[in-house]
């Protein structure tokens, strides 16, 4: 008994020692701050975007939306039990996909445009083929033991899901089976994002940690801490070397992957609402963060200042998205409307 | 930064939605209307910050009280709630009715204006906490978290060992100095600034603003002549050039002239293997081996011996990432050498010259209205995807290396 305890203590000591070493290593490479690096960059000034369209059609809270790779179509999911696929240029609804379970929390569009996936409190990720005359269920991916908080397609054959059971999972759509299960988080996984080169992905969870995973090795490569509450939203920077996280502690943070640390924190004393969703403009200069205070605030990613606000929703902004061509931003809210701004 | 009218309105709506201010006339719509409608401050007794749990018995008492005051005054959704509560709170219904009667009596003893105000306040409180159907309550927080990360996990040997291994790997991993990494980030943002439609105008016009889709038509996958901005993007990085399929086509033209197309062809084949169906994997792996890796292969790629050895061995049991090492090597070769030569080549300079620089649109309000009416759905992306697949098949057939042996034997047989 005593020998066991001694061994445990030795391991614990080693663990603490290693953690201290990591911190020291991080400090050692921290030879420049973001304000220093961005000192020569001109300010963007006040960013005032106009509301271009309001998309009405859902009857209940909108929980998630995702742009198609063609930057024109977009899919949104609402707890009225429907997925709606919109053509944002004309404002028309193209397809309505009825869901088996109305408690949907996440939706994704495949890069090919052939498939959409959704999932929520039913713990199942359902993949639909929208190429057919009427949407057909292609696969029901059922193995998670918690709600599905986020899903993203890698291609028409693979999909990544994040779940409230603290795991992320890579599925093979041809067999409908799990290929890799990514376990490391100790709280509900709330969101995930794929890197631009699709070799890695990041996940944010309720244990206030963001983790970087390698798809090829199936393991966690880096962990980022700093937040003090659930991380609800996470996104990759377009260059693939930095990530942005948004949390219930009312802050957004940018972490640099190569120097392995937090570089800037986006916070404002007047903002007391949690961040629900994030999206970046195509150059990465602007961060659109949706908050519980019914607004979507715009941050200058380099200077760390709030440069604008998108107001107009009557309830919290639950999802934000910028299409691949960067033309504008879409916000979806619990007030059942989607708004397009630019 | 000055607050805009919209932001002020959103803030007002938030106050109304949470019940700090309530509307007098249209009491069911919890929004701040920017007109002359009347609102009143809610008494702190009913503020959400009091953190009462508005439980069902309280709601039942409230509804019963209103029923006592005047029968038939409940809204249909309230009536539905009332019937439901009557059923499942049946065991304490006497208590509920008694409480309701007491509150009603106490209310009658107040002065009329006070009573009216209190009734409005109470009604507003219940409108926030028990909203009618299809209304959205601000008190809603979404589903509860499943796992509590703060529960003390029994730390076992295994957990410590795994943690220590993870930390050791983390320490061994090379880190880049902040100044370098952040410098690269700033450079990236500055480079792409003019290509960000939210920060710079896009030519000929932003379709969201003018309702005219010329921008999308000019930048389609298979245009003969791309735009200047698009060609400029290709010079930013090899990743950009290869991600834009039109750019990749141009790169292929250059490589054909240099007779060094095998690297890109291998890279493309590796991508196909990574993202394709698993049933096609073994055939693809075989074709790739025969075309690029086998000794004397028609499009043999020049990679170092160690990578070649590992790759060939891996191909015996192919999986999606079996070509990862070779693909990265080839990508780096192209990035460090071929890419820069391409940017200086006549092929690139030629396309730069030919590239279009569309005139910015200048629409009058009447034009804009017309544009809005003429919006068309455009080509369905699935059709574009199908066209793409057809083109790919054609290209694959056209560029398949000539099997010299088969050709010779055919000629021999003819003889």
Automatic annotation (TrEMBL), chain A:
<feature type="repeat" description="WD">
    <location>
        <begin position="141"/>
        <end position="181"/>
    </location>
</feature>
<keyword id="KW-0175">Coiled coil</keyword>
<dbReference type="InterPro" id="IPR016346">
    <property type="entry name" value="G-protein_beta_1-5"/>
</dbReference>
<protein>
    <submittedName>
        <fullName>Guanine nucleotide-binding protein G(I)/G(S)/G(T) subunit beta-3-like</fullName>
    </submittedName>
</protein>
<dbReference type="InterPro" id="IPR019775">
    <property type="entry name" value="WD40_repeat_CS"/>
</dbReference>
<comment type="similarity">
    <text>Belongs to the WD repeat G protein beta family.</text>
</comment>
<dbReference type="Pfam" id="PF25391">
    <property type="entry name" value="WD40_Gbeta"/>
</dbReference>
<feature type="coiled-coil region">
    <location>
        <begin position="1"/>
        <end position="28"/>
    </location>
</feature>
<keyword id="KW-0853">WD repeat</keyword>
<dbReference type="GO" id="GO:0007165">
    <property type="term" value="P:signal transduction"/>
</dbReference>
<keyword id="KW-0807">Transducer</keyword>
<dbReference type="InterPro" id="IPR036322">
    <property type="entry name" value="WD40_repeat_dom_sf"/>
</dbReference>
<dbReference type="InterPro" id="IPR020472">
    <property type="entry name" value="WD40_PAC1"/>
</dbReference>
<dbReference type="InterPro" id="IPR001680">
    <property type="entry name" value="WD40_rpt"/>
</dbReference>
<feature type="repeat" description="WD">
    <location>
        <begin position="224"/>
        <end position="265"/>
    </location>
</feature>
<keyword id="KW-0677">Repeat</keyword>
<dbReference type="InterPro" id="IPR001632">
    <property type="entry name" value="WD40_G-protein_beta-like"/>
</dbReference>
<feature type="repeat" description="WD">
    <location>
        <begin position="182"/>
        <end position="223"/>
    </location>
</feature>
<feature type="repeat" description="WD">
    <location>
        <begin position="55"/>
        <end position="96"/>
    </location>
</feature>
<feature type="repeat" description="WD">
    <location>
        <begin position="310"/>
        <end position="342"/>
    </location>
</feature>
<dbReference type="InterPro" id="IPR015943">
    <property type="entry name" value="WD40/YVTN_repeat-like_dom_sf"/>
</dbReference>
From TrEMBL, chain B:
<dbReference type="InterPro" id="IPR036284">
    <property type="entry name" value="GGL_sf"/>
</dbReference>
<dbReference type="InterPro" id="IPR016137">
    <property type="entry name" value="RGS"/>
</dbReference>
<keyword id="KW-0734">Signal transduction inhibitor</keyword>
<dbReference type="GO" id="GO:0043005">
    <property type="term" value="C:neuron projection"/>
</dbReference>
<dbReference type="InterPro" id="IPR036388">
    <property type="entry name" value="WH-like_DNA-bd_sf"/>
</dbReference>
<protein>
    <submittedName>
        <fullName>Regulator of G-protein signaling 9a</fullName>
    </submittedName>
</protein>
<dbReference type="GO" id="GO:0005096">
    <property type="term" value="F:GTPase activator activity"/>
</dbReference>
<dbReference type="InterPro" id="IPR044926">
    <property type="entry name" value="RGS_subdomain_2"/>
</dbReference>
<dbReference type="InterPro" id="IPR047017">
    <property type="entry name" value="RGS6/7/9/11_DHEX_sf"/>
</dbReference>
<dbReference type="GO" id="GO:0007186">
    <property type="term" value="P:G protein-coupled receptor signaling pathway"/>
</dbReference>
<dbReference type="GO" id="GO:0005886">
    <property type="term" value="C:plasma membrane"/>
</dbReference>
<dbReference type="GO" id="GO:0008277">
    <property type="term" value="P:regulation of G protein-coupled receptor signaling pathway"/>
</dbReference>
<dbReference type="Pfam" id="PF00615">
    <property type="entry name" value="RGS"/>
</dbReference>
<dbReference type="GO" id="GO:0005737">
    <property type="term" value="C:cytoplasm"/>
</dbReference>
<dbReference type="InterPro" id="IPR036305">
    <property type="entry name" value="RGS_sf"/>
</dbReference>
<dbReference type="Pfam" id="PF18148">
    <property type="entry name" value="RGS_DHEX"/>
</dbReference>
<dbReference type="GO" id="GO:0009968">
    <property type="term" value="P:negative regulation of signal transduction"/>
</dbReference>
<dbReference type="InterPro" id="IPR036390">
    <property type="entry name" value="WH_DNA-bd_sf"/>
</dbReference>
<dbReference type="Pfam" id="PF00631">
    <property type="entry name" value="G-gamma"/>
</dbReference>
<dbReference type="InterPro" id="IPR047016">
    <property type="entry name" value="RGS6/7/9/11"/>
</dbReference>
<feature type="domain" description="RGS">
    <location>
        <begin position="237"/>
        <end position="352"/>
    </location>
</feature>
<dbReference type="InterPro" id="IPR040759">
    <property type="entry name" value="RGS_DHEX"/>
</dbReference>
């Amino acid at each position: 008994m005593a020998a066991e305890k001694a061994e445990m203590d030795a391991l614990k000591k080693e663990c603490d020692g290693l953690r201290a070493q990591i911190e020291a290593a991080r400090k050692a490479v921290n030879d420049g701050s973001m304000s220093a690096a961005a000192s020569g960059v001109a300010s963007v000034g006040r960013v005032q975007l106009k509301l271009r369209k309001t998309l009405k059609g859902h009857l209940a809270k909108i929980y998630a939306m995702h742009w198609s790779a063609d930057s024109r179509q977009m899919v949104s999911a609402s707890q009225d039990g429907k997925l709606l696929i919109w053509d944002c240029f004309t404002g028309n609804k193209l397809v309505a996909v009825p869901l088996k379970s109305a408690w949907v929390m996440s939706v994704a569009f495949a890069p090919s445009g052939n498939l959409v996936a959704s999932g929520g409190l039913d713990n199942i990720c359902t993949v639909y083929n929208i190429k057919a005359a009427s949407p057909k269920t292609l696969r029901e991916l059922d193995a998670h033991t918690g709600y599905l908080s986020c899903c993203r397609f890698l291609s028409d054959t693979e999909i990544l899901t994040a779940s409230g059971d603290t795991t992320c999972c890579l599925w093979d759509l041809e067999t409908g089976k799990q290929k890799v299960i990514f376990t490391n988080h100790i709280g509900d996984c709330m969101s995930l994002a794929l890197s631009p080169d699709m070799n890695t992905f990041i996940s944010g969870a309720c244990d206030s940690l963001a983790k970087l995973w390698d798809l090829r090795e199936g393991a966690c490569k880096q962990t980022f801490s700093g937040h003090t509450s659930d991380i609800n939203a996470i996104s990759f920077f377009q260059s693939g070397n930095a990530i942005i996280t948004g949390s219930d502690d009312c802050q957004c943070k940018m972490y640099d992957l190569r120097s392995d640390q937090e570089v800037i924190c986006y916070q404002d004393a007047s903002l007391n609402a949690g961040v629900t969703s994030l999206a970046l403009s195509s150059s990465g200069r602007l961060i659109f963060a949706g908050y519980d205070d019914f607004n979507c605030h715009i941050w200058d990613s380099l200077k760390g200042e709030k440069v604008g606000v998108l107001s107009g929703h009557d309830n919290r902004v639950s999802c934000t998205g910028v299409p691949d061509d960067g033309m504008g931003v879409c916000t979806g809210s619990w007030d059942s409307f989607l708004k397009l701004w630019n | 930064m000055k607050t805009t009218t919209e932001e002020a309105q959103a803030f007002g709506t938030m106050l109304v939605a949470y019940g700090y201010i309530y509307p007098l006339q249209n009491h069911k719509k919890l929004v701040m209307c920017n007109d002359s409608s009347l609102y009143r401050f809610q008494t702190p007794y009913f503020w959400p910050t009091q953190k009462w749990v508005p439980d069902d018995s309280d709601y039942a008492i409230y509804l019963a009280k209103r029923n006592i005051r005047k029968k038939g005054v409940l809204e249909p959704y309230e009536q539905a709630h009332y019937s439901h509560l009557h059923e499942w709170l049946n065991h304490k219904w006497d208590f509920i009715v008694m409480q309701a009667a007491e509150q009603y009596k106490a209310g009658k003893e107040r002065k009329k204006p006070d009573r009216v105000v209190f009734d409005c306040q109470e009604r507003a409180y219940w409108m926030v906490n028990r909203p009618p159907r299809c209304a959205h309550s601000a008190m809603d927080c979404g589903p509860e978290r499943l796992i509590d990360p703060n529960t003390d996990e029994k730390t076992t040997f295994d957990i410590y060992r795994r943690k220590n291994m993870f930390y050791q790997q983390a320490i061994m991993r090379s880190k880049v100095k902040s100044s370098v990494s952040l410098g690269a980030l700033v450079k990236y943002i500055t480079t792409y600034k003019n290509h960000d439609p939210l920060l710079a105008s896009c030519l000929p016009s932003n379709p969201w603003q003018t309702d005219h889709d010329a921008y999308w038509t000019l930048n389609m996958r298979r245009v003969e002549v791309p735009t200047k901005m698009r060609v400029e993007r290709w010079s930013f990085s090899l990743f950009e050039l290869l991600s834009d399929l039109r750019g990749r086509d141009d790169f292929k033209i250059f490589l054909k002239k240099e007779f060094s197309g095998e690297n890109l062809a291998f890279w493309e084949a590796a991508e196909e293997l990574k993202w394709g169906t698993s049933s096609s994997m073994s055939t693809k792996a075989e074709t790739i081996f025969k075309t690029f890796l086998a000794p004397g292969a028609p499009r043999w790629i020049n990679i170092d011996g160690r990578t070649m050895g590992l790759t060939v061995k891996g191909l015996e049991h192919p999986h999606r990432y079996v070509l990862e090492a070779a693909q990265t090597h080839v990508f780096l070769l192209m990035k460090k050498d071929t890419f820069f030569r391409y940017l200086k080549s006549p092929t690139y300079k030629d396309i730069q010259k030919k590239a279009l620089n569309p005139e910015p649109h200048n629409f009058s309000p009447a034009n804009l209205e017309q544009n809005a009416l003429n919006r068309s759905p455009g080509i369905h992306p699935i059709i574009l995807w199908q066209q793409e697949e057809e083109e790919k098949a054609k290209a694959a057939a056209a560029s398949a290396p000539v099997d010299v042996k088969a050709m010779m034997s055919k000629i021999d047989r003819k003889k």
